[in-house]
Design a protein that fits this description.
Helix content is about 35%, strand content about 20%. α1 runs parallel beside α2 and α5 runs parallel beside α9.
């Protein structure tokens, strides 16, 4: 099933941030206003075909009904396999004193949050990121935007079984650590040295019980203020930098 970016400004932003686009569909009755002219100019620069179609076709393809006469079809994201991430982590660890980080996202639901996590993971030198292939956010246009382009530099794998993925990482010498407010241990007191698979939970329910049971350890970020928790992307950034601090 194709993914579409809807609306003039959204398509311009997708073109500006180098979201991989297959083609742009333009309503045959669309007014050539400055926004449309900007879209046409940017598509020419990136050699992306623009196809004129009846407005009814855009109505049919639009998920939100907000296409404004313009839809951009994205190219499928090139996910890698777990083996690719493991191989990359082994090579990275050999050159960086044995340290390697893989981020495992346990059913994040917001593609924007996923992009923010990817941005932080790439910033600390993570070797890859793993997401479920069902009931989970996946890489789409909003992910490219919130990752600030980092999604193009971090290998991302999909898995049909989170527990099996963790078990495979364990066989390759990784210790898995769940980031959860339910832990009795502050993250600073958890040993994150070496090869770590950092497990992040769902925005609403956190790390699932089944996945948590298969983690080697868990840690929480201490909360001294009035709010009960951080956004998953904020928490992920703090956790990843604690891994980096312990390994420098």
């Amino acid at each position: 099933m194709a993914d579409y970016v809807e609306g003039k400004r959204a398509v311009i932003e997708a073109l500006r941030t180098d979201v991989p686009l297959k083609k742009v569909l333009l309503a045959d009755n669309a007014k050539r206003d400055p926004l449309v002219e900007d879209i046409l100019r940017k598509t020419r620069q990136r050699d992306i075909p623009v196809i004129n179609v009846p407005k009814a076709e855009l109505d049919q393809k639009s998920a939100r009904g907000s296409h404004q006469g313009v839809l951009a079809e994205t190219r499928p994201f090139p996910y890698v396999g777990l083996g690719d991430i493991i191989g990359g982590a082994e090579a990275y660890a050999a050159e960086h004193g044995g340290r390697a980080l893989v981020v495992v996202c346990d059913h994040l639901t917001d593609a924007g949050n996923l992009g923010a996590v990817i941005r932080s993971a790439e910033a600390v030198g993570a070797c890859g990121l793993v997401i479920p292939n069902k009931r989970s956010a996946r890489v789409e246009a909003s992910t490219y935007k919130s990752s600030a382009g980092a999604v193009a530099h971090l290998p991302i794998a999909q898995t049909s079984n989170m527990v099996s993925a963790l078990e495979r990482f364990k066989k390759e010498g990784f210790w898995s650590c769940a980031a959860t407010e339910q832990s009795a241990n502050d993250l600073w007191d958890v040993n994150l040295k070496g090869r770590i698979a950092l497990v992040l939970g769902n925005e609403h329910e956190g790390v699932s019980h089944l996945v948590l049971e298969h983690c080697d350890m868990a840690g929480r970020l201490p909360m001294l203020g009035s709010v009960e928790s951080l956004n998953v992307a904020q928490a992920a950034t703090a956790c990843m930098y604690e891994w980096l601090r312990q390994n420098l």
